[in-house]
Amino acid sequence: MNNNKSRANIHKMESNLREILGESFYNEIKEFYKKFIRINIDKVLITRRSYVLYKIFCMIFLASMDPEDAEIKEILKKGTQRVYTSHSLPLVLAKKDDKSLLIVDDIIVNGRTILDVIHKFGGEHSKWKLTVWCLRCNAKATFLDELKNYLKHVIYISPYEWEMVSDRLTDAVVVSNVGYVSFLQTYWITENLYNSFLKKFSQEIGAKKQFVQEAKIIDTNSKNNERKKSLICNYFLLEKGQYNNDYLAAIRLYKMESSYLAVPYIFLSSLKSEELLSLCEKIQNYRAFPQTENVRSLVQYFAQNWTASEIESCQDVGVFIYQAVVNLLSDKIFYEIVCEIGMGNIADDIELCFDSRESFEVQEERKENLESLHDLICHSTHSPTQLLSFNQYMKEGVKPSKNSDIPQI
What we know:
Helix content is 47%, strand content 19%. The protein has 17 helices and twelve strands. Strands 1, 2, 3, 4, 5 and 6 form a six-stranded parallel beta sheet that branches. The protein has a six-stranded antiparallel beta sheet with strand order 8-9-10-11-7-12, with helices on both faces.
C-alpha cells in the first residue's frame, strides 16, 4: 500500500482517539507509553488491551512529525525494545541475566491476572526485581493487598469509574481499526481489495449462510457533527478444504471511514503435546507473507529441538507454541485467498497493520532464553513454573483458539 495512505490511516486513528478519550486522557496515555518505551529493561504487556494500545501508540509515534515525539520515534526505529506479552512469558522465564521486569496493564480490575504473572516469576521469593504499572486500578480490587508492594505507577478509582474508563478504552481500540487481537496478524487493505473480497465471499459463502454483516456505532462524546462513528464488520466462515486449508477458518473485514482491515484466523481444536509437535513438523516450512517469517522460524525451532514430553512438562510452553501455530496457519490461508483473487502486486493492496512480534519474534537474545528454558526442563523433574502440564490444560477444556483473541467487533 502507499505509505501516504497508511500515514493517513494513522493520523485519522489519532484524531478518533482524541475524540473518544478526550484530550487530557489521550495525552496521559500517550505519556504513559512514552515512559514505558524509554525504560530499557525487560517489559511484559498483559494481553489483550494494554498490548493493543501499546501497538496503536507505536504506530502514532512512528508516523508523527511532532518534535516532541522524535526521541520515542528514534528508539522505536532502532528496534531494541525488550518488550514481551503475557503470551510470550516462556521467552522471559529462563533469562539468566538482568532480572528486572516491568509488568504493565491498562486497568487492574481484580488483580488476578497480574498476580498470576508475578507468581510465575517466583512471587515474594523471586530473584527478579518486579514492578507493576497500570493506567487505573480498581480501589476494591480483590488482590490489591498482594499487589501494592509491586505497584509503582497507579491511579486508584472506584468500581463504577473503572467500568466507564474500560468502556472508553475498548471504544478507542475499536475505532482505531487495527484489530482487537494479540497473537494474530491483521492487514490494512485497499478499498479495491476490500470490495473484491466482499464480492467473492458473498457469492461463494453467502449462499451457504456463512456470511454475517454487523455494525457497531460508537459515540465519541464530542460536540461536532461527526459524533457517531460506525464500524462495519463482514464475517465470513470458510469450510475445511477451501483455499488449500485443512481447518475451519474465518476472515473478518472491517471498514471504518476510509480504513479497511482484514483479520484472518483458523479454528484449531485442542491438541495433545504429541499432536502439537507433529503439526509443527508438518507446517515448519510453510511460506506465506514475509511478515510471518518470525513465527515460522519459531515453529521450526520447536519442531527441530523439542520433544513432545518436554512440551508436555510446561503449560506455558505448550500454549505458546499452540498460539504460534494458529498465527502461522491463519496467515497462510489469507495468503492463499489473496493469491487466488489475483490482485497483481500484493504489496500495492496489502500492508501489515498489527504484527505479533512481541510475542513470537525470536532474535538472538530470545533464542538464548528459549534454549535456557529447554535446558531447565530437560534437567528437571518438575515444571519450572510449577503449572499444569500442557495436556492437563487442554483436558480441562481450555481451548486457546476459542479464547479472547478471537476478533470481536
